[in-house]
Amino acid sequence: MEKIRITGLQKTFQSASQEIHALQEINLTIAEVEFVCLLGPSGCGKSTLLNAIAGFIEASAGEVVVDGRMVDAPGPDRGVVFQEYALFPWMTVSRNVAFGLEIKGLTRGDIEERVGALLHTLNLWEFRDRFPKDLSGGMKQRVAIARVLAIDSPIMLMDEPFGALDALTRRSLQDELLRIRREFCKTIVFVTHSIEEAIYLADRIVVMTYRPGTIKFEQQVALPHPRDPAGAEFNELKRTLGGLVMEEHDRHARDEIRGEG
Amino acid sequence: MFQVRVIVRGTAVPLLTLLLWEGICRAGLVSAIILPAPSAVVLRWVEWLLSGELLVDTLGSLTRVSLGFLLGAGLALPLGLFMGASPKVYEYFNPLVQVLRPIPPIAWIPMSILWFGLGNPPAIFLIAIGAFFPVLMNTIAGVRNVDGIYLRAARNLGAGNTVIFRRVILPAATPYIFAGMRIGIGTAFIVVIVSEMIAVNNGLGYRILEAREYMWSDKIIAGMITIGLLGLAIDIGMNAINNHLLRWHRGMDS
Ligand SMILES: Nc1ncnc2c1ncn2[C@@H]1O[C@H](COP(=O)(O)OP(=O)(O)O)[C@@H](O)[C@H]1O
Ligand SMILES: [Mg+2]
Asked: Which CATH architecture has domain B36-253?
């Protein structure tokens, strides 16, 4: 079943001195409950593509269709997890998770039950009355994930969600995400610049090019979970993708040296 | 141990100053009108307290500060929210605000007396002006500086404009707004003393000016110290409210 269809998507940013072709002619179809990683060096348009799916930015051309409807605004059917967490700092953990449910107009009892269950699932229960500033990065990202799970979006859009975490926390959150994905049957679009993270998580990896942002290569990953980053097939993939990402990275670096970065 | 040392250090200088001051006065080096002894100030303060007049004066000043502040901040807050949230409203009001803002509240005294006569109304008007601009400017800045990512997150979770304004923009702006209120109440407190010297016949500002007529310098100084302590108490109170309401913000870097 097709969940997201992107056709001929283009996004051009107008900066003072130049036009930046962040996305050009993107065509991508994502199936229901598929886990897709967008991979590429920084600046290649991954966030722009994700933001277009989320409805945060308007496309310069082309369209994003979700469940047969054209995306023209953000909405709770596409829950976003941001790299900067974006938790509301003035709300406690449980208020943050409850926010989307309160907007939906659920009764107090329903909200409490639902939030309680999610906080238990994500091991956040003891921290329910804390404010975000008193949480570690990993914990904040758990809250952000719980906040999106609360509104029950069939699609989760994640922009380098684990990019700022240390290696151990990162691995444990990756495992947790895979568990959540099985339990809640989500379609996930996950942005990363880590090749290993992409191979560890994805059903399909989409490698993007740098300026203009286009799709360079798509790679199905059929390895069974849990995947072993030390395994032979894993490393074979890593080498292949590594070469491709490096080419784009080098183009980026050349641009930066020329002062266009 | 550490605590004790801090307390000893903190009291040493004031205590020595008082002793020196008392000594100079006792030795008759200066006239009591120019500089009354601290002991005389204390006696005068106790007498003032016991007469009941001190309480009336303090309450009078506090009431004026409170009313003026509520009026000024109460008008500045909604205007600031609108100006911060809507570029159009901002364009309409900003030029006028920029012209009026640099006028010190004291400069409004003559007009305020012409408009309101003597008594409490001009005093409260002046205090309101003193509180208005700091709260206004900070509210505008607070709303304008709300991090866009919170707006995105809220929209994504299904929030409409009203919810976003009430539950995202307003709370996100509170640290700025509170900072503005603290400055505003500080200004209000300065203005209340000045306006009491001009327009009314009680209050701490009035009382120290009255004492000057009789050359009661001990009472003037007792009044000054009371004003200082009251200002300190207001600031401590504001700070406590601030720390409680903004406990989510304490120690945060943004
Ligand atoms: N609002 C914007 N205005 C101008 N240029 C932008 C804007 N957002 C992104 N860009 C540019 O578009 C390109 C893609 O950005 P982005 O999608 O953030 O890349 P990534 O997420 O892959 O690091 C970059 O070159 C960036 O400089
Ligand atoms: Mg990005």
From this structure: Orthogonal Bundle (1.10)
